[in-house]
């Protein structure tokens, strides 16, 4: 499965991202998901629509962003 990022670079969204770690938190700060070597498989099943927050660590970089789920 190929998708393009904002720069137009193709990204393999099915690949395991070695040396990565993903944390997802709900609006109250409770960790609801965690995975090392993320494989792009979190789909919010079992969680209501709303505001979430994620932290993605890759190598020595850390990305922190908000995430809105609409159902």
Walkthrough of the structure:
Helices cover 0% and strands 52% of the residues. It is mainly beta and 71 residues long. The protein has a four-stranded antiparallel β-sheet, with no helix packed on it. The protein has a two-stranded antiparallel ribbon with strand order 1-2. The two termini are 23 Å apart. The model has no long low-confidence stretch (mean pLDDT 85).
List the main descriptive attributes of the protein structure presented here.
mainly beta, 4-stranded antiparallel beta sheet, two-stranded antiparallel sheet, single chain, 71 residues, 0% helix
- What is the typical, i.e. mean, pLDDT? 85
Low-confidence stretches: none
Number of strands: 6
Secondary structure class reads mainly beta
**N-end to C-end Cα span:** 23 Å
Specify the number of helices: 0
Shape: globular
Describe the biggest sheet?
4 strands, antiparallel
Radius of gyration, whole Å: 13 Å
- Amount of helix: under 10%
Strand content: over 45%
Strand order of the largest sheet: 4-3-5-6
Secondary-structure element series: EEEEEE
Topology:
Blueprint: E1 2-4, E2 10-12, E3 20-26, E4 31-36, E5 50-58, E6 61-69
Antiparallel strand pairs: 1-2, 3-4, 3-5, 5-6
Q: Would you kindly provide a brief summary of this structure?
A:
With 71 residues, the protein is mostly beta strands. The protein has strands spanning 2-4, 10-12, 20-26, 31-36, 50-58, 61-69.
């Amino acid at each position: 499965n190929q998708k393009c990022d904002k720069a137009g670079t193709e990204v393999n969204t099915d690949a395991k991202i070695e040396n990565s770690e993903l944390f997802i938190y709900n609006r109250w700060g409770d960790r609801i998901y965690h995975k090392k070597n993320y494989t792009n498989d979190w789909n919010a099943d079992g969680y209501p629509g709303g505001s979430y927050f994620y932290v993605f660590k890759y190598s020595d970089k850390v990305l922190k962003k908000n995430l809105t789920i609409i159902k």
